[in-house]
């Protein structure tokens, strides 16, 4: 019912001041003859009627409407006008929802929640800050937890390492990419600068053990040997966590390999700076989200896929790779992982015996956007040769300079 719609009351019935929409009060104006009722009621309605008549018009949905036509002479008509409409009280009514009220979390910025594996001071935290400047970084104790944090809407994005220029691929995250249904929406490449650190006052000659992430230990293997340290290398969950562990337990015979930020956070003293075997040590991280980004052709894109085939021989893999080569699509990575549900295939031959073949899932990154017809045609051909094909994501490439001191940020992959 409109706010100023006319409600007719039977002649002789005593109308009251009724609540209007939104908690307003409805005024009663009496037009025509008044019959029955008390004198007080007649006086009140007469005053209200005179005020409405003085206006000459009333408001309907915020607009001035012409005066109502004269009522029939055989009865009284009550013109109900909300006081809130006349006095501007409509501002107190419930406001309709706007598109901003229904929008998900922002694509980037200070309100974005980004999950990473490790504790504060980890390289993954720095990568999250480079991918999404000013984000709210959420530490997770395992890679699996970071995936689940995004799936359960605890985090908006996850930034996880997939390969290092010295240590190679992080196989655990490749397996998790296939197990979970998240999409790669971007990549970020972070220069890694390792430090050897211990509790304040501890000398290198007193060390018997060095702990850190297996990747960090592998990236510093030759340097530690050249330093003449007779220490045992032990793997830890992450680099910053190793520094935190040494500091929390007061281990004066143990050093950690981590970032300079981790040394500051946990009160450690840097014994040696830049101990990675190669100054060009870079880790590649992928940014994961619940929804994929829309592929574009106005900037360099990369696409990641995973596939498997159930036919014998290597000719199938050759045909798959040829589908990209014939279309001049460059491959940037090929990674094979054991087929989780069918790791071994048996081939029986009465004359030769039983042959055992390993089954693999193949991960491929290629430089093309799914918005390009050549990439679409290549995947259509790949699908003919494979028993399983899944696109993990088509996303902008990280084009920032590969310098150790670079602090520039990439353009967010889901900025559109």
TrEMBL record:
Put simply, this protein is called Arogenate dehydratase
Q: Which UniProt keywords apply?
A: Amino-acid biosynthesis, Aromatic amino acid biosynthesis, Chloroplast, Lyase, Phenylalanine biosynthesis, Plastid, Transit peptide
What sequence ranges are listed for the domain ACT? 305-396
The superkingdom listed in its UniProt entry is Eukaryota
Compartments reported by the entry: Plastid, Chloroplast stroma
What GO annotations for molecular function exist for this entry? Answer: arogenate dehydratase activity; prephenate dehydratase activity
The record lists the catalysed reaction(s) as: L-arogenate + H(+) = L-phenylalanine + CO2 + H2O
Q: Which Gene Ontology BP annotations are present? A: L-phenylalanine biosynthetic process
State the GO CC annotations: chloroplast stroma
Q: Which organism is it from?
A: Panicum miliaceum
């Amino acid at each position: 019912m409109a706010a100023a719609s006319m409600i007719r009351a039977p002649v002789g019935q005593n109308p009251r001041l009724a609540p209007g929409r939104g908690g307003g009060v409805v005024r009663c104006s009496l037009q025509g003859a008044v019959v029955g009722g008390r004198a007080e009621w007649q006086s009140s309605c007469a005053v209200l009627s005179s005020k409405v008549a003085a206006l000459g018009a009333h408001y309907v949905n915020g607009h001035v409407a012409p005066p109502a036509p004269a009522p029939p002479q055989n009865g009284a008509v009550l013109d109900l006008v909300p006081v809130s409409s006349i006095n501007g009280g409509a501002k107190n009514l419930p406001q309709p929802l706007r598109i901003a009220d229904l929008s998900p979390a922002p694509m980037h910025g200070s309100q974005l929640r980004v999950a990473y594996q490790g504790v504060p001071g980890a390289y993954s935290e720095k990568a999250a800050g480079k991918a999404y400047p000013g984000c709210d970084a959420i530490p997770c104790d395992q890679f699996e937890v970071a995936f689940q944090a995004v799936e359960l809407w605890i985090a908006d994005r996850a930034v996880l390492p997939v390969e290092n220029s010295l240590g190679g691929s992080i196989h655990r995250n490749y397996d998790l990419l296939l197990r979970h249904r998240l999409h790669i929406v971007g990549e970020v490449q972070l220069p890694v600068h390792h430090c050897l650190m211990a509790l304040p006052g501890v000398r290198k000659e007193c060390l018997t053990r060095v702990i850190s992430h297996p990747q960090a230990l592998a990236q510093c293997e030759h340097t530690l040997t050249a330093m003449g340290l007779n220490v045992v290398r032990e793997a830890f969950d992450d680099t910053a966590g190793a520094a935190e562990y040494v500091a929390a337990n007061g281990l004066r015979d143990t050093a950690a390999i981590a970032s300079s930020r981790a040394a500051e956070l946990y009160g450690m003293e840097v014994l040696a700076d830049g101990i990675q075997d190669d100054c060009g040590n870079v880790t590649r991280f992928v940014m994961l989200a619940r929804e994929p980004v829309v592929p574009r052709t106005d900037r360099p894109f990369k696409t990641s896929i995973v596939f498997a085939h159930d036919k014998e021989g290597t000719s199938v893999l050759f045909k798959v790779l040829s589908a990209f080569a014939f279309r001049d699509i460059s491959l940037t990575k090929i990674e094979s992982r054991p087929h989780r549900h069918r790791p071994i295939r048996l081939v029986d031959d009465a004359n030769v015996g039983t042959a055992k073949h390993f089954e693999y899932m193949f991960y491929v990154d290629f430089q093309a956007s799914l918005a390009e017809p050549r990439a679409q045609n290549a995947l259509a051909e790949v699908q003919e040769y494979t028993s399983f094909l899944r696109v993990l994501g088509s996303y902008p490439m990280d084009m920032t300079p590969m310098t150790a001191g670079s602090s520039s940020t990439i353009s967010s992959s889901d900025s559109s």
